[in-house]
Design a protein that fits this description.
- The chain is 49% helix and 11% strand.
- It contains twelve helices and six strands.
- The chain has helices spanning 17-26, 28-33, 41-57, 62-82, 112-120, 138-149, 158-164, 171-182, 196-208, 229-236, 244-257, 272-291; strands spanning 5-9, 36-39, 88-92, 128-135, 187-192, 295-298.
- The radius of gyration is 20 Å and the shape is globular.
- It comes from Donghicola mangrovi.
- This is Sulfotransferase family protein.
- InterPro entries: P-loop_NTPase.
């Protein structure tokens, strides 16, 4: 009997993850009929965040470690239940690597290895593991993450954020190495966000084991677009005492007030010279990643 496989689509943020999650949820019944159990983000995020919180508590006092152990003994069995089905399993959740607010100090997914090690505690030994990961150019990725974080958090000013991330070279290779630390036996499948539309059917079939031609298509209009430069900067300038529920609703108002009408309306905190430097770093890192023998790099048809 063929060994069952656990496939983890771990992001990264702002690389059509929401689109894929909606697509998979739309086709959940069809996937189940073909033998795949898809656990949507809504079933994963809260449980994993609780488990991560307990892992963090374990680093502190003896009393907190004891409390963490008690809570962990309730949480981890629920996570293990995701993987106990006798079928292939797919999870899609970008917060497994980290959250958008983790980027404020100038690092990219600084806790990825520890977070995935936390998840690894729930993985069974009798199933193989695959990681599915989309990467994106540094300036576009970081600008999008900043915009998303501004909906829920008090963020650094755009200029300060840009200065902290102006030299990102090596960040994506380091993330891959961190994944390897946490899940050394996992098979890695990686692609470039710019190629996604041309290779989408290959990604779908690889992640699900089902041909995209057998699944129902999803309209892109169902997915919330990014906010404009003016909306994001106005949201970032809100007083620090405004908490996330009000901040989120303020952003909805700002998006309506300052919609994206052309490409120049898209948020970017970088100068022209910074962007050129960051794009060059991305291209070098992408080539290094694509050349690695321990990675299945899914290249675009146009390249």
């Amino acid at each position: 009997m063929k060994q069952k496989t656990i496939r983890l689509h771990v992001g990264v943020h702002k690389t059509a993850t929401t689109y894929l999650q909606h697509y998979l949820l739309l086709n959940r019944s069809a996937l189940a009929k073909e033998g795949l159990a898809y656990w949507p983000m809504e079933d994963i995020r809260g449980q994993f965040q609780s488990a991560w919180d307990q892992c963090v508590l374990e680093r502190y006092s003896r009393r907190e470690r004891l409390i963490s152990l008690i809570r962990r003994n309730r949480i981890f069995p629920k996570m293990r239940a995701w993987f106990e089905l006798d079928r292939d399993i797919l999870l899609s959740e970008e917060n497994l690597l980290g959250e958008c607010c983790d980027f404020f100090d100038g690092e990219i997914y600084p806790n990825a290895a520890a977070r995935l090690a936390c998840l690894a505690r729930a993985l069974p030994n009798n199933k193989s593991v695959e990681i599915w990961l989309c990467l994106r150019s540094y300036p576009d990725f970081l600008a999008s993450v900043y915009g998303e974080a501004s909906r829920f958090n008090q963020v650094p000013l755009p200029e300060a954020f840009a200065e902290r991330h102006v030299n990102p070279e090596g960040a994506w290779p380091k993330l891959i190495d961190d994944i390897r630390i946490a899940l050394p036996a996992a098979k890695l499948h990686i692609w470039d966000y710019e190629d996604f539309r041309s290779i989408e059917p290959r990604i779908i079939e690889g992640m699900t084991g089902v041909s995209a031609s057998l699944l129902q298509s999803l309209q892109q209009s169902n997915i919330r677009p990014s906010a404009s430069d003016r909306a994001i900067r106005a949201c970032a300038a809100l007083p620090s005492e405004i908490q996330w529920p009000e901040r989120m609703f303020q952003m909805l108002v700002l998006e309506k007030l300052y919609p994206i009408q052309c490409s120049s309306d898209r948020f970017s905190p970088w100068t022209a010279d910074q962007r050129i430097k960051m794009d060059a770093a991305w291209k070098r890192d992408r080539d290094l990643i694509a050349a690695r023998e321990d990675i299945d790099f899914i290249d675009g048809l146009a390249r």
